[in-house]
Specification:
- The protein is α/β, with parallel strands linked by helices.
- The chain has a single domain (2-155), classed as 3-Layer(aba) Sandwich (Rossmann fold), CATH 3.40.50.
- It is 49% helix and 12% strand.
- The protein has 6 helices and 4 strands, in the order E-H-E-H-H-E-H-H-E-H.
- The protein has helices at residues 13-24, 48-56, 72-76, 87-93, 96-99, 116-155, and strands spanning 2-7, 29-34, 80-83, 104-106.
- It has a 4-stranded parallel β-sheet with strand order 2-1-3-4, covered by helices on one side.
- It is globular, with a radius of gyration of 17 Å.
- The two termini are 28 Å apart.
- Mean pLDDT is 84; it is low at 143-156.
Length: 156
């Protein structure tokens, strides 16, 4: 399964979710993008303070990530799109091609971090949400494989 995490500028929240998801899930893959990148931000590394926070927790791969602008192709090519923004940001920034999609999930209780305490809180909330998501996806895959095996067995 391909998962796309989306936040406002792809500097912190969606980048953290992408890294944690890819570290936690062995069967699925995630990418991330932002909605409101200004030209000079495209291709930049994630935010410096969040990078330092993630490095202090042993997530060295965080330095390899870079910011990307959300495109309709990215959303269409994903099996699940997870929007990590407040309700106000969703109303103001989320494009219609995402709002109208049936594969969108909203994590609207993770605020845009403004200081170090907010960043730690955001990272911890995202980590819990990612762990629950991976666990849920793994269960669905096991059930699907189980049902596939039953069908194969029945039709042999």
């Amino acid at each position: 399964m391909k998962v796309l995490f989306v936040c406002r500028s792809n500097a912190e929240r969606s980048q953290v979710a992408q890294l944690l998801f890819n570290k936690t899930s062995k069967k699925n893959n995630a990418n991330s993008a932002g909605l409101a990148l200004v030209d000079f931000e495209k291709g930049l590394a994630p935010g410096r303070i969040m990078t330092e926070l993630m490095l202090s927790q042993g997530y060295n791969d965080f330095t390899k990530q870079h910011r990307k602008q959300l495109t309709e192709e990215m959303a269409n090519g994903s099996d699940k799109v997870i929007v990590i923004m407040t309700r106000g940001q969703i109303r103001a920034l989320l494009p219609q091609f995402v709002k109208k999609s049936d594969k969108v999930v909203y994590w609207d209780r993770v605020k845009d971090p403004k200081n170090d305490k907010d960043r730690i809180t955001a990272r911890n909330k995202i980590k819990k949400l990612v762990n629950a998501l991976v666990k849920n996806l793994d269960k669905k895959i096991k059930v699907y494989l189980f049902l596939q095996n039953i069908n194969i067995y029945i039709y042999k």
